[in-house]
Amino acid sequence: xxxxxxxxxxxxxxxxxxxxxxxxxxxxxxxxxxxxxxxxxxxxxxxxxxxxxxxxxxxxxxxxxxxxxxxxxxxxxxxxxxxxxxxxxxxxxxxxxxxxxxxxxxxxxxxxxxxxxxxxxxxxxxxxxxxxxxxxxxxxxxx
Length: 143
Fold this sequence. Notes:
Blueprint: E1 2-11, E2 18-29, E3 35-46, H1 48-61, E4 67-73, H2 76-84, H3 86-91, H4 105-115, E5 119-124, H5 130-142
Parallel strand pairs: 1-4, 4-5
Antiparallel strand pairs: 1-2, 2-3
Helix pairs in contact: 1-4
């Protein structure tokens, strides 16, 4: 099973839905020993957490086989929700115990589906690609 590292960065509002940016870098070591790299940026209208979920989902969409995926994410809330809650939410159709949908239910549902077939490990905090992704997002804005 290949190991893939996904590094994400977002820029947006914590509580309000504004135009927010995200970027990601995916790396893996190929059989030849060469390092493969995929990177992209995008934007959505959403909160910081919604934007982070979108970034991870987009990065996972680029994988074409089952992998051991290490997701490096600066958003502690999203890391904790993936580590401790997403599978329980999936079992309850992304609803709270009172039956109401969780916030951003469709985004979490899509992310959960993209995670299937992969061994996902979450790693929180700044990472080796944080500055590179921020620069990539700024360059795209200035084009």
